[in-house]
Amino acid sequence: MKRKSVAILAATGAVGQRFVQLLENHPWFEISVLAASERSAGKKYRDACAWRMETDMPKEIGEMTVVNTDLKAVKEAGDVDIVFSALPGDIAGPIEESFAVEFPVLSKAAAHRMDEDVPLLIPEVNPEQLELIPIQKRRRGWSGFISTDPNCSTIQMAMTLKPLMKFGLKRVVVTTMQALSGAGYPGVASLDIIDNVIPYIAKEEEKMETETKKILGTFDGERVRPADIAISASCNRVNVKDGHLEVIYVDLEYKPTIEEIKEAFRNFIGEPQRLKLPTAPERPIIVRDEIDRPQPRLDRDAGRGMSIVVGRIRSDPVMTIKYLCLGHNTIRGAAGAGILSAELMVAKGYI
Amino acid sequence: MKRKSVAILAATGAVGQRFVQLLENHPWFEISVLAASERSAGKKYRDACAWRMETDMPKEIGEMTVVNTDLKAVKEAGDVDIVFSALPGDIAGPIEESFAVEFPVLSKAAAHRMDEDVPLLIPEVNPEQLELIPIQKRRRGWSGFISTDPNCSTIQMAMTLKPLMKFGLKRVVVTTMQALSGAGYPGVASLDIIDNVIPYIAKEEEKMETETKKILGTFDGERVRPADIAISASCNRVNVKDGHLEVIYVDLEYKPTIEEIKEAFRNFIGEPQRLKLPTAPERPIIVRDEIDRPQPRLDRDAGRGMSIVVGRIRSDPVMTIKYLCLGHNTIRGAAGAGILSAELMVAKGYI
Amino acid sequence: MKRKSVAILAATGAVGQRFVQLLENHPWFEISVLAASERSAGKKYRDACAWRMETDMPKEIGEMTVVNTDLKAVKEAGDVDIVFSALPGDIAGPIEESFAVEFPVLSKAAAHRMDEDVPLLIPEVNPEQLELIPIQKRRRGWSGFISTDPNCSTIQMAMTLKPLMKFGLKRVVVTTMQALSGAGYPGVASLDIIDNVIPYIAKEEEKMETETKKILGTFDGERVRPADIAISASCNRVNVKDGHLEVIYVDLEYKPTIEEIKEAFRNFIGEPQRLKLPTAPERPIIVRDEIDRPQPRLDRDAGRGMSIVVGRIRSDPVMTIKYLCLGHNTIRGAAGAGILSAELMVAKGYI
Amino acid sequence: MKRKSVAILAATGAVGQRFVQLLENHPWFEISVLAASERSAGKKYRDACAWRMETDMPKEIGEMTVVNTDLKAVKEAGDVDIVFSALPGDIAGPIEESFAVEFPVLSKAAAHRMDEDVPLLIPEVNPEQLELIPIQKRRRGWSGFISTDPNCSTIQMAMTLKPLMKFGLKRVVVTTMQALSGAGYPGVASLDIIDNVIPYIAKEEEKMETETKKILGTFDGERVRPADIAISASCNRVNVKDGHLEVIYVDLEYKPTIEEIKEAFRNFIGEPQRLKLPTAPERPIIVRDEIDRPQPRLDRDAGRGMSIVVGRIRSDPVMTIKYLCLGHNTIRGAAGAGILSAELMVAKGYI
Hints:
- Four copies of one chain form a homotetramer.
- Chain A is α/β, with parallel strands linked by helices.
- Chain A has two domains: 4-151 and 334-347, Rossmann fold (3-Layer(aba) Sandwich); 152-328, Dihydrodipicolinate Reductase, domain 2.
- Chain A is 30% helix and 22% strand.
- The first copy, chain A, contains 13 helices and 14 strands.
- Chain A has helices at residues 14-23, 45-48, 59-62, 71-77, 89-100, 132-140, 152-161, 190-193, 204-215, 258-267, 271-274, 296-299, 331-347; strands at 4-9, 29-36, 67-68, 82-85, 104-107, 145-148, 169-178, 218-219, 224-225, 230-237, 244-252, 285-287, 308-315, 321-327.
- In chain A, the strands form three sheets. A six-stranded parallel sheet of chain A has the order 3-2-1-4-5-6, sandwiched between helices.
- In chain A, helix 1 crosses helix 13 and helix 7 (152-161) packs parallel to helix 9 (204-215).
- Chains in contact: A-B, A-C, A-D, B-C, B-D, C-D.
């Protein structure tokens, strides 16, 4: 198979760098265009980008010239089959729309997540939302389309809630301890976080409470009806580089045993696993039995950063059960999510 | 007033050092005996103790000779009116009993907290539990007695729950982010906590779930009937030196406005404030209105470490309200708690 | 004595906030004007400033209106006897000159430090450089003047080198481990420093190597002849909030014993101590004998942040001796330095 | 080639775990015996060991039964061709001797490093010290022998000093900023290192000053004459998980240009590279040209943790040049060093 050509918008930022890293040697995709703001346009990627990954920048990518984040500039710079957008939320909206007229746009930004005709996709959880794509194209008259990945802290929680739906999921209380990399770069000032916790992340609680209902909603052939769940989130920033840790309390209509819950987590697989997509982890959810796991530094790289690790599953005196959930926020929660979504679309013929 | 003579058990440990620090220049108390394990006994305090406070060790205390944690040794070492015990939980039980035959023992250990005839005291919250003292003395035939302070993470939560009782407190879900100093010294290994969170603290969740009901219970003249509240706790260790941060979700029978909740917090005072006890903070609970407070490093020293700081009080989609609560775990949560309790006992004539 | 009126330039920044904190209840000075950039001008200080000190903002200061950093605006805003400048190095030069035409300007910026007629003052070390003030005023035709404090890491090293001069100081090698607050706010990104050291601080090594020679130089009645010392500095940023730690190796012509070195440190006092200036620490240099001190968190507040703490003084196989030196970089290294300098000028009649 | 059977002493500790991790899928070696203290003996490795590596414990290793650190017990447990010792320094001496009577013992402990007839080996630097092995065997009447790896902070410095020898290396001043993992587990208490630097590591400075002279010494066919270099070390512990950073100042007899120094570093290779040993990094020393590298978190994994990264090479006002040097302390500085040494011995026929 000829590899698909990929353009990355906001390629020099934290998520953009992670896209570049994860796409190195990808069997289906190759980077053809790197776009960023005017300040970077015209420079070699190696000069435009303050590379912060622990692995070296791929040599040939470093030699590529960055172009402006502009439809015309991107088209002139190379072939494009797929556009990954890591644009900041405040400017992503109209730029992504301009690209979607011609190209599939897979976005990490919040701008279009709650649009009625836009998928809010987690490949293992709700692949049926891909059916919104033809509806969107028809309605908007586009050759391309927009599909979105949820917020990082939402993705990992939603992946663990999905297998609990069959027990009659009614109410969710979640407290997060989120990593620094979730705030981008430079992001959180070191003086703010040393010997400290910051108990507030702008718009994060609203995203978790709203997006989850769409993700777990029901697609009726026309639209997604939000899941009938009450969700309360409290989001905190802790002094951890990567890996969001979440304490989740759920109220379930039926009263499964702890072992039934574990089985539901362990047996959970989805389309990516059935289709053996290149970026799909063997196990979307890994259950750890140790008393003190998951931990961010020890578990964030499970499944090459694409598995969600749960642990401390136990009965709850107020709700039904409580447990911990950990995911790598810039892999499963960002660039890896986009790549897995693209793989699913290719496999299903949407791209 | 002649100052009362104080013996400190486990005086060289982390909480013991905090007692020494806080008792410097105390108007009512003076340290007469420092007791520790056999390894330290016979040495000067300055040599026996790896002092870790940010203020200097009081000079004259450094010159005192440490004695063995043994009733006879302590009595020979000096006058004793009050015994503060910072003993480790696993050995505290019988040692404290041996001292209580003759002396008032104020304990930071868990050993006797749930004993039916032992106060589990927070001076602002349940001073009526002091009435267990004569019952205990009579029942056990002691000249002295044992009174206990709750677990550190429990104290600060219970102080904020008390003023919510009038709104019909039914259910509490709490997620903690606790400081390193709560684990004592050496406590948490740096290799375990760097770039990490440890989502487990042995016995901590059980303590929060159990002790709170006794603290908020009703004293009927004979015993304490536990409060009829369901409590679920999840306890985590984060990379913070001092100051436990807690995310609290409460379900209330009546539905107060946010402003009524704030008023209840702001107006909350207790016996220590009415009696103007030396260690009592002017305001037991401080309400902060900023979107991102309280924070451990910025707020833990409020009221010289004796105030609890709450913030982000808001409606909750699952429970009734949620809010944050922060306290200094080795001052209000340990040594300061013991001293305030002793002050209340002196003022009320129990010592 | 009527208190002198003080204007602070760049009052909302990290050093500016420290000035506000340290000047609360100062016996000689009171803040009359707070100046900052246009973005802040016109706002109340409480609204213009993201206050980051661990103590509360003084209430009445919070109510003051910030004015633009402009001579006219400052003069209209209130009486001014002294101007403290915490301006960023790149804009400080001409602005400070404009104020110096009329007022004494005490600057924390690098812009004028190496000017021939400008003092580079450490009150305990080189009070004779104050005699440059009349020379400067005459030469420049100003009613006011500019005096500068050295770079933070330079101040603390120079204070320890001064008493070593009598042993024939020839060569100095210094490696620093500097605190985050030295980079201002937001300064160092948390993603850069977590689990890391950044072995480079722009222009810092040059400042240490150059400024020290002027500080320790000889004033001949007309100018300062730089000290004839070779200095090599390597500067590193470590994950510490406040307090620069420096490893210093010195080559001395005469070969004092370790005890003679300690005596020289312990006996070192200067004009601020003789004059009992309000901000002067009792001991400018504190010698600690423990094997593992000074440490930033334990020793930075010595002498209310105005003492330098040295330790681990020992013979050196390559140079003559080596030792550690620690100072609070935003107190003795910045705002406290400026205030002590101003106190010295008042006491000596320069203001 | 049949793989050599390897016994690991102190297999459950921090360095022991690293040996297990690095030996997974090793082409020449396979683990046959895991030995540890009596507390662990008899348990499965998975139960005896609190595994702390970020990668999973190899499954089949987890099932192995740990035996006591005793010659007889080890021999009964399996075939042994090589013994890796990660024993604590205070007990390593006699135990290693008991094993060396029969087996090659490659030790990470300090006990025998300075023994006249024991190699202090860095494969790239001084492979000629292997010739001490037959001398040692003859003198001690052993079938086996002891060979040692230097202290972690010494290895990386010595590797960078070796190519500077040709410029007439005379004097070295080094200040280290060392990682937490160098202290083993539990090692440094989190309360000691948060917001802090600990400027003392027991015996570390002496090791750097002494071992380096033997490493860089001259083997005359009988013994190693120490290099005639003056070395001064100051060792500090910083809040970094892995990777020692060292600031090195060297005085050279000849005055090479910076470019000549860089060339010397870049061109440095040794026997491991010529022999293409499995664990040998392609480049023992990597020169980085960025102004702010090497950094521990970004560079410690270079060459799979076996390369030393240098940077900021510049002229020095006091010595001749100064530079930074970074190495992974538990790979190149410990377990990886032992494995590379063993590979060299196998290739050279010593095992």
